[in-house]
Every structure is written in C-alpha cells, then in structure tokens.
Amino acid sequence: MKPFVLLATRAEDVPADEEYALFLRYTGLTPEELVRVRLEAEPMPRFDLDELSGIFVGGGPFNASDPLEKKSAAQRRVEAEFARLLDEVVERDFPFLGACYGIGTLGAHQGAVIDRSHSEPISVVPVTVTAAGASDPLLEGMPTTFDAFVGHKEAISQLPASATLLASSPDCPVQMFRVGANVYATQFHPELDVEGITTRIHAYAEYGYFAADELELTLAAVRRAAVSHPSRMLRTFVDRYGR
C-alpha cells in the first residue's frame, strides 16, 4: 500500500506525539504507512500525489481568521504551503481529510467565511448528519447523531457553493463538509479519545480555550459522555483509499 501522510502543526512534543499515536491507532496504519510531517518545524515537502494513498491534517494552534499582522512567520508559511497543496488536491479530487485546523485550511482555500461566531468550548457535542451526509461513504454506518470532541475559537459560518455540508452541531453549523467526491474536512476531532483530549487540555491550558479557573470544569465536560463513533471514520478513510 502507498503511504498516507499526516500534516501536523503542534509545536508541543507531548500533544504532537500523542496526536500521531492516535491517528496510528484509529487508522490501523503502521508508522511506515502513515508518514508524519511537523510543519511547525520544517517546510512542507513537495508531494507526488501519485505516490500517496491520501492526506490527513491534524489540529493545531493556528487560526485562519486571525488578521495577517497577528500571524507568525511560521503560520504564514504553512498557510502558503497548504494553498499550493490544496490547489492540486482539489483539482485532482485527491483523498484528503482535515480535522479541526484542516477545516480552516480547506475552508479558506474554497472561499468559506471563517469567523468566531460559532466557536465551541472544549467539550463533547452532539453532531447530526445531514441528508447528504447520510449517503456519504465516509459516514457509512454512523448514527444520525453522534457525540464528538470539539474545542475551537473559530469556525465556518458560511460554506461556498463548491462544498457539500455533511454534518452540523447545535452551536456550529458546519461540523463536516466535502468538496468533490474525496476531499473532506471536520470541525470535530475524529482522532481523539478521552485520554487524548485530557492531554490537550493540560497542554493548552494557557492558550485561551478556557479561563484559568475552569480546568476541572473543562475536564469534566469531556468526560460527560462516551465518544466512540467519530474514530471509525479514520479506518473507513483508509479502507476506502488505501492503494
């Protein structure tokens, strides 16, 4: 099988390494089959898509809606690299699944409106599949409504005509969308389990996702419901596109 790639942007080693471990666990891939590139530390390679099965994008600290003057040099570089990559991915309808930060990169590339009107605190939310989502192969076998981990300062408030809405939540209208037949993005985190999100809560406690005195409340919020369905999407993606 040709390898998949995980494009990551987390600068902190503990959550970055755990993110990779979670993608390995829930995709069922080996390290040789899932090549990680840490974009915060090195430029994105020029990929030959003919030599890959598909691309995953993990979450990260960058916000697409931040003013240009507030973006670091690393963020501006990463955004330019994603723009070039997505030009080819979208043109070829190449298998792509971006989670959290991935929805911002794909959304920005397609001209979506991204702002802070539909942010969600770190928590578990009910995600409901649309009629289009119910017939989408990546969501095959998923319940109409399932619990998922979220935590984001920005979100898409308006999709462009090129995108198909696949799932929503009560406070975030765009939880998942598709461009073409094979290019996907989710606002929720399909790779996370409760241990993984607990690690991130501690790692990003001072990043403004919650107040300094809300650590225990945030930890309780992600433990209020068992989250098991979203990770199935990762294995489905591999089974569908591995070649």
Automatic annotation (TrEMBL):
PROSITE patterns cross-referenced by the UniProt entry: GATASE_TYPE_1
Residue span(s) of domain Glutamine amidotransferase: 49-193
Keyword annotations of the record: Glutamine amidotransferase
Family matches, as Pfam families: GATase
Coiled-coil regions listed: none
Annotated InterPro entries: ChyE-like, Class_I_gatase-like, GATASE
Name recorded for this polypeptide: Glutamine amidotransferase
